[in-house]
Design a protein that fits this description.
The chain is an alpha/beta fold and about 250 residues long. The chain is built from ten helices and nine strands. The strands form two sheets. A six-stranded parallel β-sheet has the order 3-2-1-7-8-9, with helices on both faces. It has a three-stranded antiparallel β-sheet with strand order 5-4-6. Helix 9 links the parallel strand 7 and strand 8. Helix 5 runs parallel beside helix 10. The protein is elongated, with a radius of gyration of 19 Å. The protein starts with a helix and ends with a helix. Bound molecules: carba-nicotinamide-adenine-dinucleotide. Carba-nicotinamide-adenine-dinucleotide (CNA) binds next to helix 10.
Length: about 250
């Protein structure tokens, strides 16, 4: 582990355009469950409450339209954590941007914790739970607004309000996709962390990277481990603890 961390830090030291591509594993230390770990949402059994539906089915655009009340019950219980705070990974990534080393965070997360930690360029591939839109009139609402509207949240026009997140079966925002692809293809280092790289098209983005410093930091193996130059199968919090100490030492606290 020490040798790998030294290599990671020496690559960070030589880089000015790092892109971090992350997923749900970045927020597990903030108390938000991921999907595919043994403790993740996919291992949960929701069949009684949701009539045999699995998490992927419940979190789909079709399910939201057919069963808005059930969708929101699941969404509020399993994907919204109002008390969650950024952890060392979010905070250290924000510092890497501040010291001019990181050009963007590309995330599959919808929890807004990178923004809360102070990261400025955050490309949210799957949208954000912070913003919500009435499906009938287009009126925008904050997360706090919809939490106070009951289930399902309804607009003053009586339309159902939906979260501005990409649900299963829906397309990703073309602009966010092309900006993410451009950032990654211009990056001088790519750090992938806290993602199983199982969900298309996030996994595809890895292929835009053209440099020599491709790192994967993830507890479980991913389909791209063979393509990475450095694979660290350790908790992200420990690895980013070392990155934080590097920043403290060379750039001050
Ligand atoms: P995933 O498929 O659940 O994979 C998460 C990966 O992170 C797993 O391979 C774990 O081994 C790894 N992991 C978990 N915790 C740690 C840790 N502390 N240190 C190192 N590795 C860790 O999640 P993906 O992001 O790959 O899948 C994409 C889905 C999950 C997207 O649609 C997200 O919107 C969705 N999601 C987001 C959140 C969130 O916003 N915080 C939470 C749950 C799911």
């Amino acid at each position: 582990m020490d040798e790998k961390i030294e290599r990671l830090l020496s690559w960070i030291d030589k880089s000015q355009k790092i892109v971090f591509l992350g997923g749900a594993g970045v927020s597990t230390d903030s108390g938000i469950a991921d999907f595919r770990s043994s403790t993740g949402l996919y291992s949960g059994d929701f069949r009684d409450a949701y009539g045999q539906a699995r998490a992927e089915e419940i979190l789909s655009g079709g399910y939201l339209k057919r069963f808005p009340e059930r969708f929101y019950r699941f969404y509020f219980e399993n994907l919204i954590f109002p008390g969650a705070k950024p952890n060392i990974v979010h905070c250290t990534l924000a510092r890497l941007e501040q010291i001019g080393k990181l050009s963007a965070v590309v995330t599959q997360n919808i929890d807004g914790l990178h923004e809360s930690a102070g990261s400025r360029r955050v490309l949210c591939l799957h949208g954000s739970s912070a913003s919500n839109t009435c499906m009938k009139c287009g009126q925008k609402y904050s997360l706090a607004d919809i939490q106070n509207m009951g289930v399902p949240p309804k607009c003053i026009c009586d339309g159902i309000v939906r979260p501005d997140v990409v649900l299963f079966g829906e397309s990703l925002d073309a602009e966010v996709m092309s900006e993410s692809a451009e950032c990654i293809s211009n990056a001088d280092m790519l750090i992938v962390g806290g993602t199983s790289l199982a969900v298309f098209p996030a996994a595809m983005f890895v292929q835009y990277y053209r440099g020599e410093k491709f790192v994967i930091i993830n507890r479980d193996a991913t389909p791209y481990d063979m393509a990475a130059r450095l694979v660290i199968r350790e908790p992200l919090g420990e690895v980013f603890g070392a990155v934080e100490r590097y920043i403290d030492e060379f750039y001050g606290r």
